[in-house]
Structure formats: C-alpha cells, structure tokens
Input
Amino acid sequence: MRQIRFAKRLQHLQSNIFADIDLAKAKALTAGNQLIDLSLGSSDLPVDDHIIEAIANSLYDHSTHGYLLFHGTRDFRQAVAQWYEQKFSIRIDPESEVLPLIGSQEGTAHLPLAILNPGDFALLLDPGYPSHIGGVHLAEGQVYTMPLKEENDFLPVLTDIPQEVLSASQMMVLNYPHNPTSAIAPLSFFKLAVAFCQQHGLVLVHDFPYVDLVFEDNQVPSILQADPQKSVSIEFFTLSKSYNMGGFRIGYAVGNAELIRALRQVKSVVDFNQYWGILNGAIAALTTSQAGIKARVMKFRQRRDIFVQALYKIGWHVSIPKATMYIWARLPEAWSDKSTEFCAQLLEKTGVIISPGAGFGKSGEGYVRFALVHEPSVLETAVERIGKFLYEL
Output
C-alpha cells in the first residue's frame, strides 16, 4: 500500500512559535504547574457591552443564520470606510476598497497567493509576525528578511536590499506599531517606503492591528496617508486588539482596489464570511463611542509601567515601549544567544510563559517578548518568579 505523500510546502510550516508554546504549556499543565501565561497577545479584557448586545440581538433574527456573501457585508464595509475617513482623513470606497477578513492574519497569509509566483521574493521584517512568513511559503515564494536593529529604531534599511533580490521581488510587508518589538514608524518612513515600492514595482502591505494601542500621545500613521492615491498599498486591520474581539475573528483590508479584488478572489475559494451577527457587533464597535478604547489603552499603559518598574527592581533594564501590549526585552548577557532555552527553563522552573525572540526570526535572538495580558498583581508575581529564577542561576 502506497504511503500518503504530503506537499513539500508543509516542510516550511512545521514550526510555529505559538504552536510550540501551546504544546509546552499543555505539558506544564499536565504536570500540575501553576502557570502565568505572558506569551500570547490575546487581551484578557472584556468586549464592551454594546458590542455584545448587537451580536446577541442578531441571534434571534433568523435572517442572519445563512451564508453571508460579499454584497451582504455592505453595511460593515460602509462602517469601515466611515471609521477610516474619520481617523485618517482618507476617502475609502466601500464597494471596491474594503474587504472583510477573519482577522488581519488572514490577509497577510492569503495575499501572497494573489501576488507571488513560485520563486518570487517577498521582503519581510526580521523579527516579524510568523504568519507573514507562512503566507509566502504557502505561495511557494522566497523570503528575504530585512533585519531590524535597535540602533535603527527597529526600522528596516531599504537601501541594504540587494538589487538581485529587488529584481525578483513582488511585495514588501511592514507592521507598525511592530510586533514583537513595539516600535512605531513615523510618516516620513512610510513615505520613503511608498516611494521605494513605487520605484521597484512592489506591492506594499501594512499589517496594522495595533493602531489604537499607542501611549503618550504618540501618533501612528496609516500607510495610505503616505499613499493617498492607493497606488501600491493595502492595509490590514483587526478588531482583536482595539475592541478585545480576538475570538470573534473579524478584521478587514483597505487599499488599492486591484489588490482588494485579487485578495477577494483568493478568499472566495477558501470561505464565505463570518456570521452576520459578528459583523453587526463590529459595526457597533466602529460607529459608536470610542471611549472604551481610551480606557483600555490606559490599562495597558498602567500595566506597562508596573511591569517595567518590577523588572528594574530585579535588575533587568528594558526600553519603555511606545505602543502595543508587549515588552521586547534584551536578555541578560548569560542568555544573549539562548532565548528558546531561557523560555523553556523559565517555564519549567517558574510556570511563567513568555515568547523567545528567536521564534520571530533570526534577528530576534537575544530578546524575549512579554505580553501584558494579566492584571498588575499577576504581572508583579510573574516578575518575582523571574527574579528568583535569575538569582538562583
């Protein structure tokens, strides 16, 4: 009997930092360890009541229970266009420049299927979010990583990209505020990136889930503010971070109409759309008071300050992030090239789960990422355990 043979592309998908952490967490739970999970950026805060009510009310409307095709999402797409214009002063056509998604991750994973032919290069940030690489491998493309260094404010140096790579490249993926480093990019950099992509015939993809999780009145631009004609750009949003709706799987793409149409073609053979009631909840989120966002940002800012202060007390000095729900921390010297081993031993000996920088790319080695997804008292307990772990060594 002939054995089942799998596609070669699966070889590139065997390792995923979050899947690996989930497996390690399951083993630790089975062993009876008391865990504090700071590995995944899934907010512990609740969804606002008016959003839940909009979803709940939809459940009793039987007309919402069937398949939802693109034209049925019109109200949601109009809400997106309205939100975008109010926030960034950019006009968006809800018919041709908006596409509902199951989170921004769907966009970054599926868009390469619409852009890359086998062997084409995609220019990706290193460190960067794992689905960016995964999508390129699914499309049988090649990855060229743009190293992000602290001395460059974790922005890529575009002029370092070799010409032979550029000539075979089709897309560049950016992500600011950045996961995992928490760096933000100024509009001047986005303008430079747009001009670079226009010059070299590249699609410019901007993954933008942390648009609202920004501290100290820092301003984070949309890529379309640097490309108002939408000549080469597409931007992905999600309601997972701003509205704590991670489990509802709702996001959207905004940008160049041809890119939106191409992504829609890919999506049409993969799935339909979310349950209508979830879109009704998303409409409520986007079109009503945004006061809840401000309250959540204040909570994460408080957590950031408490966590950084606690790390300082145990002698671990880190940069204070300007955005996101993460702390990107350079490891102590003894662990400078052992981020995966550090995280594994920390979990085994303390029950604290964090993400190794190496899981986000080669340039992430020497760092770890903390997700501030617990109340301050729990975060302080986590740092106490970390301090004992470091002291015992």
User: Anything to note?
Assistant: The mean pLDDT is 94. The longest helix spans residues 291-313. The chain is about 40% helix and 15% strand. The radius of gyration is 21 Å.
